[in-house]
Specification:
heterodimer; A: mainly alpha; 0% strand; disordered N terminus; B: 300 residues; elongated
């Protein structure tokens, strides 16, 4: 209100008045807010749609298709001496869905449970324990190990890729590019196994047996130094594997991204202005070369979470991957279904964060949305 | 006629000539060391696996020679039932290649269909296709694949390949779509369209040659992904039990080979074979990329 009065009051204003910025700010604010709201609304719709799609696919796979595991399980219970009615009652209790009702009403029940955050109870692994309870602790460890190694791999890959781009064609470039291609090609599991075998078993460099679990049994979980140090020590093994297997892709991407930027006119112009090579690299090349990589973050995250299934199994790390491995082995479908949904939510959140980060890092996308 | 001849003479007199594959040596130079290594390695693996599949019989179990280290009789040692690791690895390649090839082709075909449908149909169809692709891309597909594979056991390599392809196409589809969009906007295609040439003609003569190299590369990428996923599926015992590298590795791992240096040979032999195959595929696709796209070659 104040700003509109100052802009209207022309007579009082000498040429450079201090109220000017306020006026422009007030004029531009709705333009910024509305596209932002639109963006948020659109991504919300996307997230809801995706969750619905994944939930429906899991429902179809677990409950609706012929020969689905729930039917098999109910028959299995009957084989163990329960009557058909008793078996159905037990299934209904654990799944929180009336397995005797029509498929459609089961679907409605299932969706209603999901909306209430109820994923049912474990069927076989630890019968009766709510799946959400089983997931909660484990998801945190997986996110911790995967998130940490993603950031480390990103930083390392960024710098190595930059170095390769500046020394294009030199031996260091060839070494980095070919080395990255090789690392990119080797599955994470195999790296993990080779590492465990040589570092832990053959050379005895690291006491690999005592690195099992997420932290040592003798520390108290909580915010205290021994616990944090222990957790960091235990995360090294899986994190090394994640870093080794993702860093190659970052190097290759950041190299090609830096190469495109290096040829841009503004870099030439910056050099022509006589700026030091270091400033050109840090402020002009790296900042812009980093941008396209941010969008790859979410995809890489999904990839690493998938890879974590085996890596956690090998290093006996109590994350979500290990839980999935157990659930797969014992065919505990409520747990499987919970893991599928939880990882979907995680990846969706990561994508949303990456998108938001991209908008913040790259002002150009913001102006595009204004237009 | 004479004018044309004159022009042609003038053209050839120019010092700048298009680079062409003139000889084997030239081809080797263009592929680079990595490319040659990849292609030769791939051929070796294919031939060795074919020999193993069709000519070599199943190695005998020999309970007097369990978990041996390499020797003259067993160059890569023996596994936990005394079978020769080298023979097992050579025999196990064919199933792996079959899976990779079928899965790669199927993945590429689905990706091609979805990637091209959007740009050519346009409008609502395009938006739906893009939406479905993006949706499927963001979902943690591999975990879903594991769950589906554990609920509905596949019984043949082909079924497994189809399953992997259904879960693996969206990334390739997106790349093919981008490629198709950029090709469609190129001048010679616009010119052909203005000349009102038939759509079939345009697709076959102008679009297909431009996209084909990319499809070859994306098929190879699909193959590497399929191998990687097969290894993990095998680790959980979710693949049909044939003697392929993934199964050999998971069986050896199941025998605790990771903590027994004597048993390690039976685990590392298939691992090495898988890594070599992956490496050859990646090197081949990278060098083909350079061969198809001269701009990349200049940048490298």
């Amino acid at each position: 209100m104040e700003s509109s009065r100052t802009t209207g009051d022309v007579s009082r204003a000498p040429a450079p008045d201090p109220a000017r910025p306020a006026a422009t700010l007030a004029a531009t604010r709705p333009k910024v807010v509305r596209p932002l709201l639109k963006l948020v609304a659109r991504s919300l719709v996307r997230v809801v749609l995706m969750l619905w799609a994944v939930a429906t696919v899991t429902f179809l796979a677990i409950r609706a298709l012929p020969g689905n595991p729930v039917d098999v399980w109910v028959q299995d219970l009957q084989g163990r001496g329960l009557t058909a009615r008793q078996a159905e009652v037990q299934a209904t209790q654990l799944l929180r869905i009336d397995v005797h009702a029509s498929l459609w009403s089961q679907y409605v029940d299932y969706m209603r449970n999901l909306l209430h955050g109820d994923l049912g109870s474990s069927v076989i692994l630890s019968p009766g324990t709510p799946v959400t309870e089983m997931l909660a602790g484990r998801l945190a460890w997986t996110l911790f190990s995967v998130g940490l190694s993603l950031i480390v791999a990103f930083v390392i890959g960024m710098h190595l890729g930059g170095i390769a781009a500046y020394r294009r064609g030199g031996w260091i470039d060839r070494l980095l590019t070919n080395g990255s291609a090789v690392m990119d090609a080797i599955p994470a599991v195999l790296v993990g196994i080779a590492l465990t075998f040589y570092v832990g078993v053959v050379w005895h460099l690291v006491p690999i047996e005592s690195l099992r679990g997420a932290y040592s049994p003798d520390v108290q979980p909580g915010v205290n130094l021994p616990f944090v140090l222990s957790a960091l020590g235990h995360v090294i093994a899986p994190a090394t594997v994640y870093v080794l297997t993702t860093v190659g892709a970052w190097v290759l991407q950041s190299r090609s991204s830096a190469l495109t930027v290096l040829n841009d006119d503004y870099v030439t112009q910056a050099r022509a202005r006589g700026l030091s090579e270091r400033i050109v690299r840090v402020a002009f090349v790296q900042r812009n070369a980093r941008l396209p990589l941010v969008t790859g973050f979410a995809i890489t995250m999904g990839f690493v979470v998938s890879g974590s299934i085996l890596v956690e199994e090998i290093f006996v790390y109590p994350g979500i991957g290990q839980l999935l491995a157990n659930a797969l082995a014992k065919r505990d479908y409520t747990v499987m279904q919970g893991i599928v949904l939880a990882t979907t939510v995680t990846v969706l959140l990561a994508t949303a964060i990456a998108d938001a980060l991209y908008g913040w890092l790259d002002p150009r996308t913001r102006t595009e949305q204004d237009a | 006629m004479s004018v044309v001849e004159h022009l042609e003479v003038a053209d050839t007199a120019e010092p700048v000539r298009p680079r062409r594959l003139t000889s084997a040596a030239g081809g080797v130079r263009q592929l680079g060391f990595g490319g040659v290594f990849g292609i030769v390695g791939l051929l070796t693996i294919v031939i060795a696996s074919a020999v193993g599949h069709y000519l070599i019989s199943v190695p005998r179990t020999d309970l007097n020679a369990i978990l041996q280290s390499p020797s003259l009789a067993h160059p890569l040692g023996t596994d936990f039932t005394g079978r020769d690791n080298l023979v097992l690895v050579i025999r196990g390649g064919w199933d792996m290649l079959e899976l990779a090839f079928v899965a790669g082709l199927l993945m590429s075909a689905i990706a091609l269909a979805f990637g091209l449908l959007g740009p050519f149909a346009g409008g609502v169809v395009d938006r739906i296709v893009v939406g479905v692709t993006d949706l499927w891309l963001t979902v943690p597909r591999f975990i879903l694949l594991l769950v589906v594979a554990s609920l509905y056991r596949v019984s043949s390599t082909f079924a497994l390949a189809a399953l992997i392809a259904i879960f693996g196409w969206p990334y390739l589809a997106r790349q093919i779509r981008a490629q198709a969009l950029s090709v469609r906007r190129r001048e010679h295609v616009e010119a052909a369209r203005l000349l009102q040439l038939r759509t079939g003609h345009i697709v076959l003569r102008y679009l297909a040659p431009a996209i084909a190299p990319f499809v070859v590369i994306s098929t190879i990428t699909g193959m590497t992904a399929a191998i990687y996923q097969q290894v993990i599926l095998a680790f959980f015992g979710l693949v049909p039990l044939t003697d392929n590298w993934g199964v050999l590795f998971s069986v050896a791992y199941g025998q605790n080979a990771i903590y027994l240096p004597a048993a390690a040979w039976s685990m590392f032999a298939p691992i090495a074979a898988i890594c070599l195959l992956q490496l050859c595929l990646v090197l081949t696709s990278r060098s083909l990329e350079g061969l198809f796209d001269p701009r990349l070659r200049a940048r490298r």
